[in-house]
Amino acid sequence: MTSSPNAPPSYLSDPILLEELFHNKTLDDSITSTTQLMHNYGVMWSNCFIPATTAYLMHSCIPYSPDYPLANHFLIAGNCQHRWYTRQKIRLVKVGAARKDVDDMLEYRLQLAVGIDGPMNNNATMRLFSNVHCGPFPTEKRAIAASLITFLLLHGEPLGPKLRDADPTDILRTVQHYRAAAVFCYESCKLGLLSYICVIIGSLTSVAELEEDYGQNTKIMYLNERYEEFKKETGYQPPKSHFCVHCGVTQPFRMLQKCGGPCHHGRKPVYCGRQCQKAHWKTHRECHDAIYCKHLAGVDDDATQTTSN
């Protein structure tokens, strides 16, 4: 029995690798195998080319459960496979890019960004994405380019293993990258695309801390508003959050308690106690019904108990 030609790559069915894919901090240029290149390609595609809610739904259910959105994983796999495997003759993509075909321009830049046509060169790739963002192209394509620039600014040039060991000039460069990433994230949103990379920007407290000296208060406030809208729509909470999702009290992560239900392990809301969880249950259940696995309407307190971290 032969496998389906449209079967998704193995990492799209592995919850641990999915988590790595979805929250990958940098593109991995240490391995040049086809699998790793496809992984890098999937990272940028899912973070920059599609709306944040769509990307979130692709990765937020428990694999192999009845409500696992397998069709969505086929969607992301099918798009990546079609865009890369059937167009991997980069010479043809280059020809299209030279003709100013915007789809080929984005495709060629994306392949350069993940190392398909030689070593990664983020600076050169960013210049090429800027040509699309600032060029006479459809709004939706310019929005994708802005999200791709945001991704490269935020994740494209990793520091050393430990920030405290980094050179001060590297730390300054990183702060400047955060600032620039916030600007391009704002551009992407205003052009109509709230991608998942924009959600990541919105969740970074370091961006908010730059508000005063950055002089971009309006843009930061706008990004925060879009981030809050996304959280309200999906029930999203950043991994290892330090605040109770109901009352907002801040505590060390290990002092908070996770939801004990079957919601996705990486995005379980955390609470300071049972009272807050009980008060928040109606809102959380609505997110479960729309996003995660279904809960019984008459579930009792014991079935919704919190678990310690």
TrEMBL record:
Top-level taxon of origin: Eukaryota
Q: What is this protein called?
A: MYND-type domain-containing protein
